[in-house]
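Narrative of activities, Objective 1.

The group set out to show that a structural description can be obtained from nothing but a protein's sequence at a throughput compatible with the screening campaign. Below is one input-output pair from the validation batch, recorded exactly as produced.
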Amino acid sequence: MVYETRIKSLAELLRSVRDMEVDTGIRALGVYDGRRSLIFITKHSGNYALWMRERNERGTGRGAFLSFQDFEGLRGFLEKALDRPLRAHMY
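Output recorded for this entry:
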């Protein structure tokens, strides 16, 4: 069974990402490359991985994978890419 917890603020999201364990992930709404996107954040082997997939009515669209070796690089990206108001969940 998968449990989700709503993340209510950017500060809470950044704390959750920084302290993330390998078996957790975060799903958020945002914009990437000028397109509305779903953003999935995970952590593996000390690196942060992001998968972004375009949100559209057909459920299709292009995606992109990014990897960040440090929290500060990821933080800068997320501060620009996430929707306001924040819509994110940890699972």
